[in-house]
Specification:
It comes from Rotaria sordida. By secondary structure, the chain is of the alpha+beta class. It has one domain: q2cbj1_9rhob like domain (Jelly Rolls, Sandwich). Helices cover 32% and strands 14% of the residues. The protein is built from 8 helices and 5 strands; from the N terminus they run H-H-E-H-H-H-H-E-E-E-E-H-H. The protein has helices spanning 2-5, 9-15, 26-42, 53-56, 60-66, 69-78, 186-192, 208-225, and strands at residues 17-20, 89-99, 114-117, 134-142, 156-159. The strands form 2 sheets. A 3-stranded antiparallel beta sheet has the order 4-2-5. The protein is globular, with a radius of gyration of 18 Å.
Amino acid sequence: MTDRYSHLVDQYHRDGFVILRNVIDDHLIKECQQHIEFLQKKYPSIPGEHLHHPIMRNDPFWVRLITDQRLLDLVALFGAPFIKPNEGIALFSSHHFCKPPKTGMPVLWHQDDVSIHHPNIIHSSEANTSDRRRCGLAIRYIAPTTECLNKEQPVMMMRGKSIAGINHYRSWPKYRPGYDFPFEDCEQWNEKRRIEPEDESYFDRTDYDQMDQEIQDKAFAFIAKLGGKAPPK
């Protein structure tokens, strides 16, 4: 995978961004589309452009996607020298951009591409004036040497080992049949997931309605920080 894109590393360092074609296979893309529909039915009051990390923290498919080895290999390739393969890869945030027709934001990629940009690159999106929904997924990887000062942020290790004293890492979400989005090999997910023992009590809960309400409350608290408003109750 990385050999196919290694010739673009210099372009990334020169321009601050790069677009990689045909990274994700069609089957996983279809699962992504179905997953977004699942989330919008599960959290109908949360706008599609605000499917943020409070949901990710509790969603096994989301974490399955952002831990895909193809993506992590590209992070190691393009993240150097800040992300070092022998130090691992962490993540501090991820969210969907999912805008309905006439309101959504345009996206540079199509459905099997990946764009990578440096955080210092100025970037924005215009409104979606088309008749079709447009969706994208932002993934914010960091080196495990980077400390996230917001203790409420669901920081996760994606690959490698964490560094003692830096960040409070969360477990990868547990798959719970009948509650979570069913995806390929979801039955084996719980054997693969990374576990942080002090975080596991969260995934022992079965009060799913209460959990979903807490997730929505956190999502709208985050939206409020961005200047948005919660829907009327």
